[in-house]
Records
---
Amino acid sequence: MAAIYNKNAPLWPNKDEYFFRDRDIQRIRQTGPRCVSTTLAMLAGKSPEDFQGRMNTQDPYSWSEVLQPYGMKLAYCTADVRKLKFYMNELVGMDDLFTLSYYTTLNPEAILGDPNNEGWITGSHIVILHRDKIIDPATGTATQAIEHHCNNYHTKRIFRIVPNDYVRGL
């Protein structure tokens, strides 16, 4: 019997679920290399300083933990390293609230390379997708999702923002 392989999977199994589509996101421009704390602050309606030093910028589980007092957590979306443009229509079609992380190099060899002596591989960035807009902490602006430059970069992580009592999530 031949093995059957799936070529891909939907980002989220239930297309009829909406959690935070009507959330009011106040845009904040990050100061220095603080995209994670600034993104979490925008999601929670707080200040980036409320999150700095309370989570590990490379550990999404810790991000989810610091969001829980604000009634939300992160839920992993099935994704791989393909460019975000290959996910964007599906994401916008879900019409809800997500974080999108992507590598900031266009060189796939750098993404797949070995870390240096300090453990560094390559840079990355995180933005918010709210309905059909990307809210970018680097600029503090909102852009149509299909027009944002993140579409050209390789995916690192995609999380849906869900209520902290939702069955799925970190």
---
Amino acid sequence: MELKDRLGKEVILFDGAMGTVLQQRGLKAGDVPEKLNIEKSKEIVEIHKSYLKAGAEILTTNTFGANALKMEEIDYSVEEVISAAVENARRAVVESGIEAAVALDMGPLGELLEPMGSLTFDEAYNLYQQQVLVGVEAGADLIHIETIADLYEARAAVLAAKENSNLPVFCTLTFEEDGRTFTGGSIRSMISGLGVDGIGLNCSLGPEKLEPLVEEVLQYSKLPVILQANAGLPVMENGETVFKISPAEYFKPLARLYEKGLAVIGGCCGTNEEFISLIAENLKNKKVKEREVIKESLVCSPSQSVDLAGVNVVGERINPTGKAAFKDALRNGDLDYILKVAVEEVDAGANILDVNIGLPDIDEKEIMVRLIKELQGILDVPLQIDSSDPEVIEAALRYYNGTAIVNSVNGEAEVLEKTLPAVKKYGAAVIGLTMDDNGIPDTAAGRFAVAERIVNKAAEFGISRDKIIIDCLTLTASAQQEGVKETLKALNMVKEKLGVKTTLGVSNVSFGLPSRPVLNRTFLSMALYQGLNLPIIDPNDNEMMADVKAAAVLNNIDQGAADYIEYMAETENKSGSANS
């Protein structure tokens, strides 16, 4: 049975460390281990063979740092090093007579990406693309992205792998004991945002310290889960780096994690063939344990995830409609004005920000990409990309670091065909408007039919219902009073019969009528009772926000009323400060 057919069904074993084994064999600090693929290929082959004899089923090429940035100072090209590395691993397989897959190993680039560093997303993508193309040409069987501490860098690497090969892609990130990467990324954001064939953790700590973090991955990810831990933290003895954990100590937490569903196991720094041999003796070819995965509908930024199953406020103010100052800012390229609006929305309690910059006389695609980069540089909340242009949506999703919401598609066949592929590719959630070529249906049944068609079409593209949000469209009570009732009926039908999430732009209901806030709040309460998940409102409206918080309590979403109590206390404090 091929590796891809066994993945997630039988335990599969990676090899162990390469760098620390080379150090034990005389590699000096500061030397470039990738050079040895050419200068000491026989020794590299022997290390690979030792892992094969120990029971490894995947050999990792000695290419952890084989990117153009890290190799600027050596005499060999990326092409030469990666080709030699794949050949060395392949030779080990042939000479040992033991079947195994060869994984092209890609580690971090060595420079931080924007906004924390100066490396752009496109530059990172191009560096990884070069490695992937050479690895594919050399005959690698899969691509293993490892020891990444930045979800944005992981995204660049994964896209480079998926867009330039048909090989399986594994990705393991390195986390600190607090459950965060060096750049602040979270486990849940990692799970939600990548779209690979296997996901997990490696390096940083020993398996016991990583155990609770791997358990979290096992709880929330449907993918095969990978662990390649260090042999503990390194210590210095007699001027040498030493790892203290023995193979037996290393294996104990792995055995516990196997019982919880761990599927792919190997070693990182400080491990060697003895570690892999012990794992193989106990777990090789065993069936992966079944596990229950907690179902969530997540959208996320690198550090913050939002479960759409609850009630979450989408801030509506990043939108030029009817706002002269906002339009001027867009025309003048004044993103600071827009960023100020965004910060105000988050400070007021918005969980997600809708980002709409649609104006006929601007380069929407260029400005949207710039704005997305700026927003994710200063804010933690997930973003909702609001555009009717599929090219703008595609570009925004590509540069967004996380899992976004696309606002929106509708029931028109052409719109669905043009937009849904990008939604699937980037793992986004998508809002479907209940309108089509014939406009907005008058009845709830008509809008439900459009919603059902959108859900079914999304399924054809591999988009599951937990990624779908339906907007039954708020009509103005001044012109279409009966239509308002139909909106609420349709919302309930969609919620009950399709099992998807729902959203509405609340303030549309009161257009053209006096005392608009009264109508808005009343309509919001009615919609929340029918199952509204994502009210799109102005979060600076304290009374609207209070209604949302209260509804979460009364619908048993905010258990213990903790969020409600906190919000009310903060509101009272702000009010007191303003009056003092």
---
Amino acid sequence: MTTQAKILLVGNYALDGQQSMKRYAEFLKRELAARGYRVELLEPSVTLGGLASPKNPLSKWLGLADKFLLFPRTLRKRAREFDLVHICDHSNAPYLKYVSATPNVITCHDVMGIRSALQHYPENPTVPSARLLRRMQWIVDGLKSAKCVICISRKTEEELLTLLERRPPLQRVIHHSLNWNYQKMSVEEAAPILHKLGLAPKARYLLHVGGNQWYKNRLGVLRIFKELRKVPSFQGVTLVMAGKSWTPEMRAFVSQEALQGVIELVSPSNEQVQALYSGAQALLFPSFHEGFGWPILEAQACGCPVITSNRDPMREIAGAGAVLIDPADPVSAAREIALRLRNQDQLVKDGFVNISRFSKDAMINSYLETYEEVLQGAKA
């Protein structure tokens, strides 16, 4: 595709606080621009949404007005100035009708929100409101109209096709690359960072990185760690839980079980996470579901063995460089970890081999090839 092509990336509303989507859109913009493409990132302006405090119930409705009353006019007008429009988040699929006159692409990161609303997950029983169901159906209807959908994993593609009940005209799976330059830190580099986090230079610890979404299975992390504490070789091993502050349920579990050796680390920096990966015995990542599973790659890039679920997309992303466990069975998970984690050196080697599948160049080349297919299809 010629670098003269003008690409419009459509991002998310700032007040929604979707940091992973923000990083993804900015990553695409940065890498496409570095290759000489003329690229712009357009996001809904915060106009009405800024008039009310985030705690005010009215702020949500004002934000919806910004996104779905005011922004579509701007988007329709600006889209005509570009050769291709890429909507970076599938939750914005309703925008597709405003860019239909321009060749377009949309990325689907996962359909867990939609499937949860439709009560597809026994681990997350819900009673969705009629309004939420309408919102989810609006997204599905938008995706059904898509000419080209990029999914970030084969599992996401599989679940999306089940929802759509048909394959879009053009469908591609393009894996993420790392969106930060994670690599193994030396002991000397990591030690002062870990010391500030309360970890001794030779501390033995397992690491979990993630938020409190139900599918992250953070209570399951604690349950697995409780079982591991019974294994002689894991005596003295600490669990570091990095990410969001614990939920009341997690605090209650730690208290009721008198679980020792657990450290809560809220909102660590990328550098701190890199140091944690570099010094950990392993990443413990027993998610029930994911769209992709970035921490798996981050850990492998830092030479950290990975323990993750025997489900996709975790298996798909981890490759051979992981210990696979049943995330719903803490006893069997602990038994498998105690057995398989003995061979840490091989897990690290396999992890480094696996990470090579997810290079930045491979990702961007795949996007450019897909863009070219879309542009050629529009000319046919």
